[in-house]
Design goal:
- The complex is a heterodimer.
- Chain A is an alpha/beta fold.
- Chain A has four helices and four strands; from the N terminus they run αβαβαβαβ.
- Chain A has a four-stranded parallel sheet with strand order 1-2-3-4, with helices on one face.
- In chain A, helix 2 packs parallel to helix 3 and helix 3 runs parallel beside helix 4.
- The longest helix of chain A has 8 residues.
- The radius of gyration of chain A is 13 Å and the shape is globular.
- Chain B has six helices and seven strands.
- Chain B has three domains: 48 residues, no CATH class; 80 residues, no CATH class; 31 residues, no CATH class.
- In chain B, the strands form two sheets. A four-stranded mixed sheet of chain B has the order 5-4-6-7. A three-stranded antiparallel sheet of chain B has the order 1-3-2.
- By secondary structure, chain B is an alpha/beta fold.
- Chain B is globular and about 60 Å long.
- Classes of the chains: A alpha/beta, B alpha/beta.
- The interface between A and B is large, with 60 and 72 residues.
Chain lengths: 103, 166
């Protein structure tokens, strides 16, 4: 086993254009939001994101238009947290982000 | 979606999935869903394409410096994502000694060999919830996020949330 500790910035440097990312957590629960916000500072584009019930961390990537495709079963923040504003921004209207919905 | 990740984790190109019958999604997304006949008895079955993520990005409560992780509370699909993905990046509320994993090995839901990087990042799921560390949404910061998305000011919001964290 080797020491894998890195800074947040070093970790986001691993992400390259066109990669498919699985984002953990669920809706408002234990999603890697600060990772997504740090990624929003990097010039990465055309990502694909997936998750069964992607929440806030995925929404940040979609709000920043860094993804062109989202695979999801249910995509939202639930209860008082409401709909997923970044997903709606990216998918409604012209629909720049492709939605691939599964159950 | 779970079956697509399962196919990825098992190293097979697709997986039969029950429960999709009657859904328009099968016809709308042929790149993801297809219908095939069982090679055994010809029964028609919906199948879903495998997903093999380049990275799984997972926030956990406890990890050691080698990437052994414990998820306290609900784990959702996170252990599956780590197995479907080529590699996993972990952000963690805290770094713990490996003795924690040795005490109760069964609680290590993501083992070190699936992990490429570990970031010590307390509050890494805020303004959302990370049970049992913080159990309520920080509503002022969540409302600020919703406003930032509408106003195209995500950069400013990120600066506020990330101050001193990069």
């Amino acid at each position: 086993m080797r020491n894998k500790l890195v800074s947040l910035s070093q970790a986001t440097d691993l992400i390259k254009d066109n990669m498919l990312l699985a984002i953990g957590g669920n809706a408002m629960h234990r999603t890697p939001t600060l990772f997504s916000l740090a990624l929003s500072k990097k010039p990465v584009k055309n990502l694909k994101v997936c998750g069964a019930a992607p929440g806030l961390a995925t929404d940040i990537i979609l709000a920043n238009m860094q993804a062109d495709t989202s695979y999801f079963g249910f995509s939202g923040l639930e209860n008082e947290a409401g709909l997923s504003p970044g997903m709606r921004k990216g998918m409604e209207g012209e629909g720049k982000i492709k939605a691939i919905e599964g159950s | 979606m779970i079956h697509a990740l399962r196919a990825g984790a098992y190293g097979i190109p697709f997986m039969p999935v029950g429960g999709m019958w009657g859904s328009d999604l099968i016809a709308i997304r042929p790149e993801f869903f297809q219908i095939m006949k069982s090679p055994f008895d010809g029964t028609e079955t919906v199948v879903v394409n495998a997903l093999v993520p380049d990275y799984a990005i997972i926030h956990v409560q406890e990890a050691d410096i080698y990437g052994n992780c414990r998820i306290l509370g609900p784990s959702y699909q996170d252990a599956l994502m780590a197995r479907a993905a080529k590699k996993t990046i972990i952000t963690t509320e805290r770094i713990v000694g490996s003795y924690r994993m040795q005490e109760e090995p069964k609680l290590t839901s993501i083992p070190h060999f699936l992990v490429e990087a570990v970031v010590e990042l307390p509050g890494g799921a805020k303004p959302g919830i990370c049970y049992p560390e913080y159990q309520a949404v920080e509503w002022d910061k969540h409302k600020a996020y919703q406003k930032a998305v509408k106003a195209d000011e995500l950069g400013k919001y990120a600066d506020m949330m990330l101050e001193g964290r990069l």
